[in-house]
């Protein structure tokens, strides 16, 4: 008997679970990361403090602990009845956003100060300066570290599998209960993760090449 | 603002009472360094003020405080009777009326020359894109780089880049133009092409504050020369007066160093 062929539907479900968790968390992380990076370089001190706190708290907390908070504190105290997918995406997305914010901030720092000064001197607001002048020029520097961050995120979503989400890691429990050889199960699961991480790898290489041509 | 120690500009233009920029008792520190000390300066509409002085005397800082790229510790700055607002939308609106030209050009590296000149019009003034492009092309022709419109800044010489930067500032129809050492980063042969554009602007009646080391420009284009040293305005005079007969020892010393070699 073959683990993969006998349980194709389950593997498919697990693979899509991991993929879906990764994509949605990544989107959340990018949006939050851009905002937080903006906060960290903003001229408004309270925003800077908030940004710094956000990054330091989330980046320095073990992801498992964040999951514990998300699944056992948040539903009890704030939002009862939220489904486990949303909670997992929030935990992964918030956590990853702190890394994205730092990558974006390092990109912002590579853009010469004069660019932002010139933008402000013609009357652009802070947000316009960031969106139109600074961030487009920071993109090239930000792309390479971003692929590492998303690959790490893919693997981090496995923790969601332990918290009531059906993903590649989660189906392992079902399969080993069914009596399949655990080593073989993990070979196929690993392959599932590799497909996603290599896809991210390729996507970002494409993006890097594209940006190189543009200049 | 009536008690400002108004320094009467001798060679000023007809409407010397029409104050466009007023700096009143400005002080600024960089850490322990007192870069601007009790600066009072009034610039009339249509006046060309050239600020000269040794390195580190606070000239550039003074220039940058006028559109609040540098904040001040105390004192007040008004432009067209409006006090400079705090950071935010109001300040952005005011900056749109104050053109600035930098020593290092600071053209937007990821935009073409034409886009550099249209960007502010479209994003800040909300001008229609076609109208903005037309105006940009006129301005680029006026500063003599009309045929470079579709290139990126890095493909232009320093002198061309600086002229584009002037066009970018002019595109906003500024009330006053600030020049922060506009020729200091240029090869000698490119200095003149930039100075000529500035001369023309001065003749057209633009209000200008020019920080420079170009004494020739100061002599020919300025209504008034402001000499700064160690964070203070040491002397203000017409160019003829200043260059032929400086009053202060500090200015005499400075001129003897730069004019004899």
TrEMBL record, chain A:
<dbReference type="InterPro" id="IPR035906">
    <property type="entry name" value="MetI-like_sf"/>
</dbReference>
<feature type="transmembrane region" description="Helical">
    <location>
        <begin position="182"/>
        <end position="200"/>
    </location>
</feature>
<keyword id="KW-0472">Membrane</keyword>
<keyword id="KW-1133">Transmembrane helix</keyword>
<feature type="transmembrane region" description="Helical">
    <location>
        <begin position="85"/>
        <end position="104"/>
    </location>
</feature>
<keyword id="KW-0812">Transmembrane</keyword>
<keyword id="KW-1003">Cell membrane</keyword>
<dbReference type="Pfam" id="PF00528">
    <property type="entry name" value="BPD_transp_1"/>
</dbReference>
<feature type="domain" description="ABC transmembrane type-1">
    <location>
        <begin position="15"/>
        <end position="204"/>
    </location>
</feature>
<protein>
    <submittedName>
        <fullName>Amino acid ABC transporter permease</fullName>
    </submittedName>
</protein>
<dbReference type="InterPro" id="IPR010065">
    <property type="entry name" value="AA_ABC_transptr_permease_3TM"/>
</dbReference>
<comment type="similarity">
    <text>Belongs to the binding-protein-dependent transport system permease family. HisMQ subfamily.</text>
</comment>
<keyword id="KW-0813">Transport</keyword>
<dbReference type="InterPro" id="IPR043429">
    <property type="entry name" value="ArtM/GltK/GlnP/TcyL/YhdX-like"/>
</dbReference>
<feature type="transmembrane region" description="Helical">
    <location>
        <begin position="20"/>
        <end position="41"/>
    </location>
</feature>
<keyword id="KW-0029">Amino-acid transport</keyword>
<dbReference type="InterPro" id="IPR000515">
    <property type="entry name" value="MetI-like"/>
</dbReference>
<feature type="transmembrane region" description="Helical">
    <location>
        <begin position="53"/>
        <end position="73"/>
    </location>
</feature>
């Amino acid at each position: 008997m073959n683990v993969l062929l006998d349980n194709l539907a389950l593997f498919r479900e697990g693979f899509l679970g991991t993929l879906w968790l990764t994509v949605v968390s990544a989107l959340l992380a990018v949006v939050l990361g851009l905002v937080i990076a903006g906060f960290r370089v903003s001229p408004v001190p309270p925003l800077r403090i908030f940004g710094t706190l956000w990054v330091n708290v989330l980046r320095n907390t073990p992801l498992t602990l964040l999951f514990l908070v998300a699944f056992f504190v948040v539903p009890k105290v704030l939002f009862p009845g939220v489904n486990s997918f949303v909670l997992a995406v929030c935990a992964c997305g918030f956590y990853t956003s702190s890394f994205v914010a730092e990558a974006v901030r390092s990109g912002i720092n590579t853009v010469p100060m004069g660019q932002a000064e010139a933008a402000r001197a013609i009357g652009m607001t802070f947000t316009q300066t960031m969106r139109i002048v600074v961030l487009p020029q920071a993109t090239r520097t930000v792309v390479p570290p971003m692929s590492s961050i998303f690959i790490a995120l893919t693997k981090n979503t496995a923790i969601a599998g332990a918290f009531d989400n059906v993903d590649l890691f989660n189906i392992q429990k079902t399969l080993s209960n069914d009596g399949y050889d655990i080593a073989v199960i993990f070979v196929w699961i690993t392959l599932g993760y590799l497909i996603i991480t290599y896809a991210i790898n390729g996507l970002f290489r494409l993006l890097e090449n594209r940006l190189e041509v543009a200049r | 603002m009536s008690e400002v120690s108004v320094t009467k500009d001798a060679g000023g233009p007809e409407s010397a009472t029409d104050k466009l920029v007023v700096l009143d008792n400005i002080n600024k520190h960089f850490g322990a360094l007192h870069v601007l000390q009790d600066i009072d300066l009034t610039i009339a509409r249509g006046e060309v003020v050239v600020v000269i002085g040794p390195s580190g005397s606070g000239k550039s800082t003074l220039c940058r405080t006028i559109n609040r790229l540098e904040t001040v510790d105390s004192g007040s700055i008004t432009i067209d009777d409006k006090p400079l607002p705090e950071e935010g939308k109001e300040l952005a609106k005011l900056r749109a009326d104050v053109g600035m030209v930098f020593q290092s050009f600071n053209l937007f590296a990821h935009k073409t020359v034409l886009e550099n000149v249209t960007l502010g019009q479209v994003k800040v003034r909300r001008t229609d894109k076609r109208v903005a492009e037309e105006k940009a092309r006129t301005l680029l022709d006026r500063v003599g780089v009309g045929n470079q419109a579709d290139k990126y800044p890095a493909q232009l010489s320093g002198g061309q880049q600086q002229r584009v930067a002037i066009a970018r500032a002019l595109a906003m129809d500024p009330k006053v133009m600030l020049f922060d050492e506009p020729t200091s980063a240029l090869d000698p042969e490119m200095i003149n092409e930039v100075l000529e554009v500035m001369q023309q602007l001065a003749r057209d009646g633009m209000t200008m504050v020019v920080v420079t080391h170009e004494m020739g420009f100061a002599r020919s284009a300025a209504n008034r020369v402001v000499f700064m040293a160690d964070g203070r305005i040491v002397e203000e005079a017409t160019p003829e007066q200043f260059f032929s007969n400086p009053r202060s020892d500090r200015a005499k010393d400075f001129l003897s160093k730069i004019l004899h070699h």
